[in-house]
Amino acid sequence: MVRAGLLIPLIMTTTAGIYPASAADSARRDISCGNYRYIIEKSLFGVNVNIMNINDNIIASTERPYCQSNPDAQMVAELSVDGDDIWCVEKFFIVMDRKPIAKTSRLLNLTLDRVFEYDYLWQASDWVKADTRTITCASHKEPKMQKIPD
C-alpha cells in the first residue's frame, strides 16, 4: 500500500519529470519583414507571436501581439498557426452586429521567409480582392554548431 504522502511526489515527478526536454524543445525565432520584426516562440503549449516596429524609435522596443482585435476600431482579429504558416485575418466592421465590410489576410510563412498580405472588400455578396503585397524577410536564425572533423 502506498501512503498518500508518497503518492503526491510520485504523481508530480511522473507528470513534470517525464518531459525534461520540453524546455529545450521550445524555440524562439526572430524574423524581420519590412518595417516589422516578428518574434515567434514555440513551446509545448502552443505558439506565441509578437511584433515590433523596427523604424519607430518610440515603440521599437515594445513588443505587442501580432494578431489582436481592437473593438474601438471595429476590428476583430483571428490568429491561426499551422506548422510554419502563421495567419492573421482581420475583419473590419461599420457596426459590430453586421457583416464585415473589409478584411485583411496576412500569412507569415517561415519556410519561404515571406509575408503575404491580401486585402478584400465585401461587394455584391462576395469578397473581392483589392490588393496584394509580398514582403521578403531577413531571418535572424541562430547558426547551428558544426562538428569539425579531427
Structure write-up:
There is one protein chain. The longest helix has 14 residues, at 4-17. This protein has 150 residues and is mostly beta strands. It has a 9-stranded antiparallel beta sheet with strand order 4-3-2-1-9-8-7-6-5. The protein has helices at 4-17, 22-25; strands at 27-33, 36-43, 46-53, 64-65, 75-82, 85-92, 102-109, 114-123, 126-139. The chain has one domain: Lipocalin (Beta Barrel).
List the helices and strands and how they pair.
Elements: H1 4-17, H2 22-25, E1 27-33, E2 36-43, E3 46-53, E4 64-65, E5 75-82, E6 85-92, E7 102-109, E8 114-123, E9 126-139
Antiparallel strand pairs: 1-2, 1-9, 2-3, 3-4, 5-6, 6-7, 7-8, 8-9
Number of strands: 9
Mean pLDDT: 79
Total helices: the number is: 2
* Spatial strand arrangement across the major sheet: 4-3-2-1-9-8-7-6-5
**Which value, in Å, is the CA radius of gyration?**
22 Å
| Cα end-to-end separation | 56 Å
- Counted up, domains total 1
CATH class: Mainly Beta
What would the principal axes of the Cα set say about the shape? elongated
Structure described in brief:
This protein is mainly beta and 150 residues long. It has helices spanning 4-17, 22-25, and strands spanning 27-33, 36-43, 46-53, 64-65, 75-82, 85-92, 102-109, 114-123, 126-139. It has two helices and nine strands.
